[in-house]
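Phosphonate metabolism transcriptional regulator PhnF, pasting as requested.
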Amino acid sequence: MRSQGQTWEATRDRIGAEIASGRLPPDSRLPSEPELCRLYDARRHSLRRALAALEAEGKLRVEHGRGTFVERAPLVNYVIGQRTRFRENLLSQGLTASGQSLSEAQIPADARIARLLGLPVGALVHAISRRGFANELPISLGWSYHDASRFPELAELRRQGISVTEIYRSHGIEDYQRLRTTIFTRPANEREAPLLMLRPGQSVLIVQKVDVDKAGRPIGFSEAAWAGDRVQFTFETTPPYSFATEKHDDV
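Structure tokens follow.
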């Protein structure tokens, strides 16, 4: 007896999952209709309905005379100001923000990290690596560094889901702001490319920042590699205002 094939909903979900995972990358052309039917065990009418649904969702585009292509996701517009929050940046664009812990350790500060944090070379710092997602699509890999003597329990609290802002507050730092931001591009390395679902050699945007307390003392340094084809940065210039007017980045 001939197989009835998958439902159009199951076919839609399978193709959608392959787009989300990067197995079907942006701008890639889908195989022919008969090949798709074979790959996804779908009848032709079910396949066509699944593709139409994915096109309506903005995941596919049809170019007449050329075929069906995976649509490139719209750029995340990441606004950088004195007070920048990962979650608020994404939520304001209707995106779901989430994070994943990759590694954590206490390490001796090298000359660069020591200078940026105002510490002696060799002082112990928390080094924490995390991956950031927008709607489950990875957009950034971050590394943060904090003085382990000033924030001894920081790594444990981050594992519990406590935000950096809350940790600072528990140490009497009611507010803080970004002192400087440095941005440059380079090719993704062998570790970054698969974690960000990039092709080898694709560019990443490196963003380095230093945060300071009200007295101007450095309290944190972070560096992040952002998927260059998914994010654009807007620098916001605002008039001077008091430290207490806004909250901060909880990444």
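Note for the archive: The chain has two domains: 8-70, 76-245.
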